[in-house]
Every structure is written in structure tokens, then in C-alpha cells.
Amino acid sequence: MMMTPTQRDEARHALGLPNKNKQSYRNRFCTSKDNAVWSPLVVAGLATFREFSTLPVGEAMFYLTEAGAKMALDEGEKLCPEDFPGIN
Fold this sequence. Notes:
Blueprint: H1 5-15, E1 29-32, H2 39-43, E2 47-50, E3 59-64, H3 66-72
Antiparallel strand pairs: 1-3, 2-3
Helix pairs in contact: 1-3
């Protein structure tokens, strides 16, 4: 699966990109659990999600998998080893 431009934009936002360090510094995106942008990423194995009791009903926190995060990178960018251990 390829990411749509909207999925890639939101994935980059989830990673905290772009920034001057050209490295992600987070991996999360909070939205409705049935979000039309993120739900297909979960089905494709490019993201996961969790519901938390502290979030409003119907909301979830989405996280990119390593494969999904790599798809969101621009040339010269890298992933934070704290969020993605063992890849850098």
C-alpha cells in the first residue's frame, strides 16, 4: 500500500516532521478511532491504535509502525531510536 498525500502529511505530523534536526521526536496522533485517514493505515499494517480511558469517548491514539514511519520520511530524515529501537 502507498500512503495518500493526506495520510503522509498526517504521518509526518505524528512523527514531528519536518524539523531542523531532520529526525522524528514522537510517534502519536490522536483522532477518532474510526478516522478515514488512519483506519486504512491500521488495516495495512502501517499503524496501530489504542483507546485510553483519559481520551474522550470514540477517540484513540494512533502510532505508526516502523514500516509506516519509514514511508513518511523525506530523503535525509531519520527516525528517533527511542521510538523505533534498533533501526538507526
